[in-house]
From TrEMBL:
All residue ranges annotated as the Tyrosine specific protein phosphatases domain in the record: 67-122
Record-given protein name: Tyrosine phosphatase family protein
Organism name: Xanthobacter aminoxidans
InterPro entries: Prot-tyrosine_phosphatase-like (IPR029021), PTP_cat (IPR000242), Tyr_Pase_AS (IPR016130), Tyr_Pase_dom (IPR000387)
Amino acid sequence: MIHVCSLAKLHDTVATTGARHVITLINGGTVLTRPSNVDPTNHLFLGINDIAEEIEGLVAPGEAHMLELFEFVRAWPRQTPLVIHCYAGISRSTAAAYATLCALLPDRDEMELAQRLRHASPTATPNPRIVSLADAALQREGRMVAAIHSIGRGADAFEGEPFSLPVA
């Protein structure tokens, strides 16, 4: 199971779910305390800004970030849940969760997985750059991008509610 949340709900989500693996997608300078029950080797920190285009002084998601993400999720043993979070739990984390589903379920339809995301989170607005990079890395030929475009922007919110996505 994949659980998605905001930074503010990270510790509660990890405690409630029993997760032992965490992916963090936040600005590099953001203060973060890793949950005590998550071993440092089970925590992937991607210091990226929530931007869709290169902006001087900010860190745009890149190909190397996608490679790290996919290496981490493919090594995740799945005995315990995985928590993916960003600052608000709306953009970077939902894009990473969608990319993770697509990576771990290579034979599943991108549209089905995007609709599963929308059903789980009405506020999910996946970062388009992350989705595009994941689409290219997974050789999905634009289908991931089209599927996320089809579900549209999520409802406006300051912070998303935690949600879960089964990996099946």
